[in-house]
């Protein structure tokens, strides 16, 4: 095999690893709303979980892998890094995802929001020192998240069946396809050349570390849940549906986050009244 072929294969493997790593990181992010949901909301999104038996096994495996692999690293990072520094890191990681937001704003036919997100990226990447400081928010350019899962939902695609993938976290069919497209079309990743570059390796590691540390309160909240699996499924479903309603302008249909906390002994199903 020629050196050129070997180099191409190494680069292809690097891209796959980079994609898997980003998928894991973005999956961890799905835990972020759980802490809030565990305290404030009862299930309001009907569960479509035909693979519940498989998903429960995958969830147990995922939590075990997190306990022995990611959690110790994240806790060590949190122990030696002051919170203000971690916040700067989070800001920089978020900034690198802004171009993907721009793509989805364009696909949703929202040129003004796309322009604002583009401006945010330019301002924070320059004045904000590579995104370490969110200067744009102080210029009345707040964050506007978007992804392909939201774009599919914006055009009427239903969530499909729920599935849990270890280290990737909760998903549904719509968001799983969307997440794959998010990774494949990531402009920063395309320009940087994937994980085969030093930048790509650093971005992958920092992203996973930052997202896991940010989601740590959610993991702790799960310890008090009578059924952590259902808590994750319910919180994820409500979060994603609310995220899509934000895109469609149906903000008035957001879940009632002031509702009483759910009954800890409630059954697994979370029926929609």
Architecture overview:
This is VacJ family lipoprotein. Belongs to the MlaA family. Pfam families: MlaA. With 273 residues, the protein is mainly α. The chain has one domain. The protein is built from 12 helices and 2 strands; from the N terminus they run αααααααββααααα. Strands 1-2 form a two-stranded antiparallel ribbon. A hairpin with a 3-residue loop joins strand 1 and strand 2. Helix 1 packs parallel to helix 10. The longest helix is centred in the first third of the chain and has 29 residues. It is globular, with a radius of gyration of 19 Å. The C terminus is likely disordered.
Produce a short descriptive summary.
By secondary structure, the protein is mostly helical. It has helices spanning 3-29, 34-40, 52-80, 83-96, 98-107, 111-126, 148-154, 173-184, 187-192, 198-214, 216-222, 228-248, and strands at residues 162-165, 169-172.
List keywords for this structure.
273 residues, mainly alpha, 2 strands, MlaA
As a whole number of angstroms, the C-alpha radius of gyration is 19 Å
Count of individual beta strands: 2
Strand order in the largest sheet: 1-2
Tell me the domain tally: 1
Number of helices: 12
What is the first-to-last residue Cα distance?
62 Å
| Helix share, percent | 55-70%
Tell me the structural class: mainly alpha
Secondary-structure element string: HHHHHHHEEHHHHH
- The average pLDDT value, as a whole number, equals 82
Oligomer type: single chain
Morphology: globular
Major β-sheet annotation: 2 strands, antiparallel
Q: In percent, how much strand structure appears in the residues? A: under 5%
Low-confidence stretches: 10-23, 35-43, 252-273
């Amino acid at each position: 095999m020629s050196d050129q072929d070997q180099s191409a294969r190494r680069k292809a493997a690097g891209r796959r690893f980079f994609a898997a790593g980003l998928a894991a990181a973005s999956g961890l992010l799905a835990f972020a709303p759980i802490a809030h949901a565990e305290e404030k909301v009862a299930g309001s999104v009907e569960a479509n979980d035909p693979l519940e038996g498989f998903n429960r096994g995958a969830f147990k495996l995922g939590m075990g892998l997190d306990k022995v692999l990611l959690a110790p690293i994240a806790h060590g990072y949190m122990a030696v890094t002051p919170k203000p520094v971690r916040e700067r890191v989070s800001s920089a990681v978020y900034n690198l995802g802004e171009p993907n937001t721009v793509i989805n704003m364009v696909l949703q036919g929202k040129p003004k929001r796309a322009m604002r997100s583009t401006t945010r990226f330019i301002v924070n990447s320059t004045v904000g020192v590579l995104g370490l400081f969110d200067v744009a928010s102080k210029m009345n350019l707040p964050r506007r998240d978007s992804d392909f899962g939201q774009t599919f939902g914006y055009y009427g695609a239903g969530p499909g069946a729920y599935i849990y993938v270890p280290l990737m976290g909760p998903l549904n069919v719509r968001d799983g396809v969307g997440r794959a497209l998010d990774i494949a079309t990531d402009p920063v990743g395309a320009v940087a050349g994937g994980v085969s570059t030093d930048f790509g390796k650093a971005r992958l590691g920092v992203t996973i570390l930052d997202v896991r540390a940010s989601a740590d309160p959610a993991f702790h909240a799960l310890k008090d849940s009578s059924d952590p699996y259902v808590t994750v499924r319910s919180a994820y479903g409500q979060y994603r549906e609310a995220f899509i309603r934000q895109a469609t302008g149906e903000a008035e249909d957001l879940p009632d986050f002031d509702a009483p906390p759910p009954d800890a002994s409630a059954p697994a199903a979370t029926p929609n009244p």
